[in-house]
Design brief:
- It is a single chain.
- This protein has 15 helices and 18 strands.
- By secondary structure, the chain is an alpha+beta fold.
- The protein has two domains: about 5-195 and about 300-415, FAD/NAD(P)-binding domain (3-Layer(bba) Sandwich); about 200-295, no CATH class.
- The two termini are about 15 Å apart.
- The longest helix has 19 residues, at about 330-350.
- It binds flavin-adenine dinucleotide (FAD).
- Flavin-adenine dinucleotide binds near residues 11, 31, 43, 44 and 328.
Length: about 425
């Protein structure tokens, strides 16, 4: 049995591990911190706008496992908030343990607090990775799912310094990409105004630090919108990794979502300013802990790769999630992770890689995102099913649908029903 080593246990790495395991591989998943899900630990929004279509397509083509587990962690389903429809919000505390148990039940060997810091190559072949001097993991195929958040030196260089986010670099050591360790040249996102990388676009406030009325609204509806009296948020939206929340509504209101904590849809705001807003007088940041100063820097170290999610220059290395390009979101990470895991397993079996058809949003998304990245356009535009340029494209090409029956029929017409079950 061939061995696939997945480095990074965010949504992309988890999806890659599940896909490779379904193909009968011996799968090892290495995660540097003590929790799986990476930035998914502070996310939570699923199915908003085009992500609904993408999730249902993935379920219909046989990659339903993680989507269904996530649905089971959602207290709020089918809710709307400014610019976004049909969203679900998963509970960020509940999800990670459920996923870890599921991976272990499937027979995936999960190693926590295992930070890969060295790679050994023989010509174009990656042979093994090290986590410290004495821990070696050999593999036939490898997947880089290390994301792009941090490390501290990037947050200092391109952001406002380390603001103590969920990545917890001082405790577990900074993010290190596997492709980087193999010597691959990386590229960065920028905002067209000289800002390198992108700043994470939301923070968590402790729900209990909000006014009773805001807590009640969040409990009842999952959403609370607080209009602002002035332009205190300013143009923070242009530096955000998630352009789908860069509209005027997010400059004029504080939008809060109930993901267990209160997810605030701006990158950061000085605590003194935040506490001037009615209902937020006693507010405290939960993530990042110094959210009054800034947020984590992302997308400053991505790997050139193709539609099969093969990384450039290393024969047996695949790549997925944010590491594979400016493809932002949990759903997006689950899509590219599934393809990377499946293709790594196919190659390990001596078969050809596959790609998803462009008639499906998930196939078109991967192709479009990577083509745009090649032309450098994608480096400014971040790609997500949930808004901005790619959601516009979905609508133009009639790829967007919230009709589950219609999505299933289309998948069946394309002969894709059991694609990830074969
Ligand atoms: C604050 C914030 C809020 C967000 N909110 C949402 C949201 O609500 N909805 C949404 O769809 N998207 C959201 N996103 C974006 C989304 O979280 C990401 O685009 C997506 O989850 C990326 O997944 P990933 O697996 O590629 O990377 P990551 O989530 O970054 O995971 C990478 C993992 O690799 C590990 N790792 C790194 N280096 C090593 C190493 N050398 N060895 C071993 N392990 C390593 C890391 O510890 C991490 O666990 C949010 C992002 C942030 C930062």
């Amino acid at each position: 049995m061939s061995r696939i080593v997945v480095v990074g246990g965010g949504w992309a790495g988890c999806a890659a591990a599940v896909a490779a395991k379904k193909k009968g591989m011996d799968v090892v998943l290495l995660e540097r911190t003590d929790m799986l899900l990476g930035t998914g630990l502070v996310g939570g929004i699923m199915r908003n706008n085009g992500r609904f279509t993408a999730a249902e397509e993935m379920i219909a083509i046989g990659a339903e496992e993680l989507f269904e587990l996530i649905d089971g962690c959602c207290k709020y389903k089918n809710i709307d908030f400014p610019g976004h429809k049909n969203a679900s919000l998963y509970d960020i505390s509940m999800a990670q343990r459920r996923i870890k148990l599921f991976l272990k039940e499937k027979g995936i060997k999960v190693f926590m607090e295992t930070r890969v810091d060295e790679a050994f190559k023989d010509g174009p072949f990656l042979k093994k990775v090290y986590a410290g001097k004495n821990r070696v993991f050999e593999g036939d195929f490898f997947i880089d799912a290390t994301g792009t958040a941090g490390p501290q030196k990037n947050c200092a260089k391109y952001g406002n310094g380390c603001v103590m986010c969920i990545m917890r670099c001082p405790t577990f050591g900074g993010r290190t990409g596997l492709a980087d360790l193999c010597g691959t040249s990386l590229y960065s996102a920028e905002n067209g105004k000289g800002f390198k990388g992108a700043m994470s676009g939301s923070c968590k406030l402790m729900k209990d630090s909000l006014s009773r009325q805001l807590i009640n609204n969040l409990e009842l509806y999952g959403v609370a919108v607080v209009p602002l009296a002035d332009d205190s948020i300013g143009d923070l939206t242009s530096i955000k990794a998630c352009q789908q929340y860069a509209s005027q509504e997010y400059k004029e209101n504080i939008v809060l979502l109930n993901t267990g904590h209160a997810k605030m849809m701006i990158p950061f705001l000085k605590l003194e300013k935040l506490q001037e807003i009615p209902g937020l007088e006693n507010s405290r940041y939960e993530d990042p802990y110094s959210g009054g100063r800034g947020n984590s820097i992302r997308l400053a170290g991505m790997v050139p790769c193709d539609e099969y999610m093969r990384a450039e220059n290393v024969y047996n290395l695949f790549c997925c999630g944010e590491k594979a390009g400016p493809m932002v979101g949990h759903t997006e990470a689950l899509v590219t992770g599934t393809i990377a895991g499946w293709n790594a397993a196919l190659k390990a079996d001596g078969k050809e890689c596959v790609k998803l058809p462009e008639d499906l949003a998930v196939g078109d998304y991967i192709k479009y995102s990577l083509i745009k990245t090649e032309k450098k356009e994608g480096v400014i535009n971040k790609m997500t099913f949930s808004g901005s340029v790619y959601f516009d494209r979905m609508k133009e090409k009639s790829l967007y649908s919230i009709n589950i029956q219609q999505i299933r029929e289309k998948v069946s017409r394309l002969g894709m029903e059991n694609f990830f079950r074969a």
